Amino acid sequence: xxxxxxxxxxxxxxxxxxxxxxxxxxxxxxxxxxxxxxxxxxxxxxxxxxxxxxxxxxxxxxxxxxxxxxxxxxxxxxxxxxxxxxxxxxxxxxxxxxxxxxxxxxxxxxxxxxxxxxxxxxxxxxxxxxxxxxxxxxxxxxxxxxxxxxxxxxxxxxxxxxxxxxxxxxxxxxxxxxxxxxxxxxxxxxxxxxxxxxxxxxxxxxxxxxxxxxxxxxxxxxxxxxxxxxxxxxxxxxxxxxxxxxxxxxxxxxxxxxxxxxxxxxxxxxxxxxxxxxxxxxxxxxxxxxxxxxxxxxxxxxxxxxxxxxxxxxxxxxxxxxxxxxxxxxxxxxxxxxxxxxxxxxxxxxxxxxxxxxxxxxxxxxxxxxxxxxxxxxxxxxxxxxxxxxxxxxxxxxxxxxxxxxxxxxxxxxxxxxxxxxxxxxxxxxxxxxxxxxxxxxxxxxxxxxxxxxxxxxxxxxxxxxxxxxxxxxxxxxxxxxxxxxxxxxxxxxxxxxxxxxxxxxxxxxxxxxxxxxxxxxxxxxxxxxxxxxxxxxxxxxxxxxxxxxxxxxxxxxxxxxxxxxxxxxxxxxxxxxxxxxxxxxxxxxxxxxxxxxxxxxxxxxxxxxxxxxxxxxxxxxxxxxxxxxxxxxxxxxxxxxxxxxxxxxxxxxxxxxxxxxxxxxxxxxxxxxxxxxxxxxxxxxxxxxxxxxxxxxxxxxxxxxxxxxxxxxxxxxxxxxxxxxxxxxx
Length: 731
Prior knowledge:
The chain is α+β, with helices and mostly antiparallel strands. Strands 1, 8, 9, 10, 11 and 13 form a 6-stranded mixed beta sheet that branches. Mean pLDDT is 83; it is low at 1-7 and 264-270.
């Protein structure tokens, strides 16, 4: 075997351990030196490559070799023909540019080739001699004015009527003051303006027309009268007009509130003027919801300075008393009844021109409003108004006495987002929700002893929705439910951003609108606070509870309808349950299956009258009238016939159920809601005790929740039962 010079470390070669620059094209000499001196194989191989590349490069640049010459001709292109095509294209473009320059040039004898607009300002001044041009009459048209050239400062002084689109304008005639809230927005023409602070201004008492004005230049609020109306300028927006103790403009707005003022007639819903019945008779039968028009020699409708006669008698039946209009068509001389549009829909949907229509009357919730004489329009079969009997106690009674249909209206916490096999509700169809509090509650209620009416709870929660959305879509939400609805739970708020002041007023008004519409449909509304959650990002759990739920509680009191504090109940579950928080509410906002189960159990405690609430250590025996039993005991029975007997106090109980029967009977049953985890003991002999149908051992720990605890006898032996004791478990 021969020795390898490289292997034995010949110092003449491979002593340079620095790496080559792999992006550099070295010279031939540099490449040759690197081949013999670089220590690492990758550097030697790169030197070989770069040496060959340098030879090719130099030959291409300097050699007369044909192949190399063709390579130079190709340039950056793959083929010579591609390069030639590129050259030809560039030549064509140059020719076209030259032709264009020829066409665009100004000829010596050319006419109308240089326009006034092409001249610079100094050239124009030289031509005019620095003098102002005088334009003749009718010489400046719209086309002569440059877009944007006429600014506000060049316009004649003129007033603008503003439209409030957000916020609140309070006109308080009682205290002689107007107030524009911070964050209010209004529009006049194409201009929009807003108030960045709450502004107030005095409202003097006067017999003249008054104009509430906002100046978007000085950002100030003030009131002017008819005496100085001519001085209203183009930066002043008229927000309201008052005359003779009435609000004349705007005639209807959700953002304008008044105190001590009459409000003008509403024209929001139909683009029609008021007409007056001056001869004839119109009756509204409230029981049959029928409007009848009868002649008295003739039927005459007056409009401004005109009257219309020759009108035929009519009879119209409508569906309900909620938001109806009686209209008269001047062209056809026919009456019609139409529904009013909701204001939000009115803003979104173009309203067709109804120039031929006159508004005769407005009908709402059993009342009629008109400007005709009461001798021409009047009510028949009017029922005496009665206060709505909407209480939680009434619902508890209904659940014990008749089939009751309830719908839950809410957001994703009702819809069941995060429950197993979740599928979101749709407007068009009903979706099964077996793991949501709604349907779990349905099962608990129907499972109570004596509640054999097959009650039905419908889940109509929609993820991500607000109370404003519910207001706009209420009819569509209820439409798939074909049977009569008795009660509606309204539980919205986590998506409404009520911690922003600007949203509070609409949050309240939308709730009121929904409540009124439900009542008009014969549905009893119940407000329910939000399910507790503890996010601290886009939603703020504490503020939702402290603001949205407080508003709903106050509204319930104001509207005299029930309020269920679902937030308090579910908050107690999260704070005190022995189940893990993640098992109850896996994403910090939406309950999972277990959370919905516990939420339903809390609601059951609010709806089932027989529920015994365990909030501290306590006992439940036969003396508690919420206990039900198959045993006979009564004042009508003798002591021997009574199956529940007085005994010497035993285990703290004075009564004992006694039964010796070959049949199985329920000796003792009670529904309890445990607010804190508790240890339960029962006292008796030869009994079988269950909780929610499952065997219950003496001394078991029951978590927060609803439990139906039942004690049954053992057939064929003497069975005794005295009662239950609950002891709060130490935390």
